[in-house]
Specification:
Length: 156
């Protein structure tokens, strides 16, 4: 026995159990004189049947025979889809909140137009062209918010 095995055996005697029974299978194989050609978990399997091993196929067949077709993976996908749908609705609502700013901006532009024309009626035409320009900018930001909201809802 080498020194590690001696230390393990000594600690096992102190604990009242065999060191090789306490050790995991890889350690046990290392400290015993078993066959050197044993199959370990690090060697590739001899199964060349495809993606699923025989154990996985056997488990799937037994689950199908017992009418257990829904597994954890199916439930996880359903929960994930529900969370994705809720996230889409929340994101679209948050993006549509930009329409509030557009409405406020348009109201401010035309309110200022009325105030400006009331103070100086001679500048009515020039103020109206500036108001239309401000209305276009405010409406564009609202349309961008609406476009992002629809992209969140209906894209992907």
């Amino acid at each position: 026995m080498n020194s590690i095995a001696q230390i393990a055996a000594r600690s096992a005697r102190l604990n009242g159990a065999s060191a090789l029974r306490q050790a995991n299978p890889i350690t046990r194989r290392a400290f015993t004189n078993g066959p050197t050609t044993s199959i370990t978990r690090f060697q590739p399997s001899a199964n060349k049947s495809g993606l699923l091993s025989n154990t996985m196929l056997r488990n799937a067949a037994s689950n199908f025979a017992r009418n257990q077709s829904r597994g954890v993976a199916t439930e996880t996908v359903a929960v994930g889809a529900a969370i994705l749908g809720a996230g889409k609705l929340i994101g679209a609502g948050a993006a549509a909140a930009g329409l509030i700013g557009a409405g406020t901006g348009i109201g401010t532009v035309f309110g200022s137009l009325i105030t400006g024309v009331a103070r100086n009626p001679a500048l009515r035409g020039q103020l109206f062209s500036y108001a239309i320009l401000g209305f276009a900018f405010a409406e564009a930001t609202g349309l961008f918010a609406l476009m992002v909201s629809f992209l969140i809802l209906f894209a992907v």
